[in-house]
Amino acid sequence: MELKEARYILAIARQKNISKAAETLFISQPSLSKYLKNLEHQLGARLFDRVGSCYSPTYIGERYIHYAERIVEFGIEWDMEFDDIMHQNHGRLNIAIPIMLGNSLIGPTLSNFHKLYPHVTVNMMEEVNFVAEHTLTDHTVDVTIYNVHEFPTGLDYQVIGKEEMVLVLSGSNPLVKMAEKKDGFQYPWIDLGLLADEPFILLYPDQNTGGLALKLFKDYGLEPNILLHTRNSEMSIRLAMEGLGAAFAPESYYHYLKDRELKSSVCLSIGKEKIENTLIAAYQKNRYLPKYAKAYLDILTEYYQTKQT
To answer: Can you give the residue ranges of the HTH lysR-type domain (predicted)?
Structure first.
């Protein structure tokens, strides 16, 4: 199996359509159809069943795709390492990141990175909602940056830093006056039990902040009054700022939005112990990372940790 052959078959498998696959490969549809026909003839077996214009892998096609993905992965790694050796400062870096985190982290650090590597293009795959390690199943993503409360076991990663998870309320909420200074917490601390009747705007449990919220409710024996579930961190924070209820958020998300809002709002420390998010940059295990990628992760780490002090 050659690299070009593997890329062609993977394009058909992903697009499930010969014309769309040809477009992504920048070749003509007849050329790709002929290529597939010749390959299947050589193998003596069909790789795809055709139902109308939809191409679905046969069993042998599924096994072929399994090995094709590995060949393409090695091809990408070779391209990056070769580029590192031959051109040093040229390349591209594909980062998957939640849009809120991208706004507060990538923007302030990109200028310093491009001073060191002016010929490296950074492509950000921003998501409004959930970003996690699943993005790394697509070999076009080099690094995924996200918050965790449990470290991934099947990935390599670099810890960028830690920050406190806070409760966001409108400044006019009467509960704000019940917050108090408490050792070990950065912000005024509030007993979560006081919010038993407060409506909550929550992220889903499979998201980092949503999962931590469930743990907090369990610790306090609370059955929260849930106004809204959303995967959009920015929406949850803004609604809390506007007084529709309470929301949980990483402190950097809150401060990023507070600096752009005219509304009065506060963030409060919570929990019987300080609740912290850990931000990591994850990538596929044993994957080759170009030196410019490692340099950018170091820039992000230094900026993030400086911002927290």
So the answer is: 1-58
Q: Please give the angle made by the CA atoms of 63, 69 and 75, to the nearest 5 degrees.
A: 140
Question: Residue 137 burial (CB < 10 Å; 0-12/13-18/19+)?
Answer: exposed
What percent of the chain lies above the pLDDT cut of 70? 92
**Phi, psi dihedrals of residue 180, rounded to the nearest 5°:** -140, 160
Q: Helix, strand, coil: what percent of the chain each, to 5?
A: 45, 25, 25
DSSP annotation of 259: T
Do β-strands 119-127 and 90-98 pair in parallel, antiparallel, or remain unpaired?
Answer: parallel
| Total residues belonging to the chain | 309
- Report which DSSP code applies to 253: H
Report the pLDDT value the prediction gives residue 138, as an integer from 0 to 100: 58
Instruction: Tell me the backbone φ, ψ of residue 122, rounded to 5 degrees.
Output: -100, 125
Residue whose entry in the numeric block shows the structure tokens 């051109």: 87
User: What's the pLDDT tens digit per position in 230-268?
Assistant: 988 899 999 999 999 999 999 988 988 887 776 789 999
Q: Which residues pair with 156 in a beta bridge?
A: 283
- Taking the CB of residue 238, how many other CB atoms lie within 10 A of it? 18
Residue 14's SS3 state is helix
Q: Determine the straight-line distance between the first and last CA of the chain, rounded to whole angstroms.
A: 53
What H or E segment, with its residue span, contains residue 119?
strand 119-127
Half-sphere exposure for 115 (CA within 13 Å, toward CB): 6
Neighbours of 54 (CB within 10 A): 11
Q: How many CA atoms lie within 13 A of 229 on its CB side?
A: 9
What is the H or E stretch that residue 291 is in?
Answer: helix 291-308
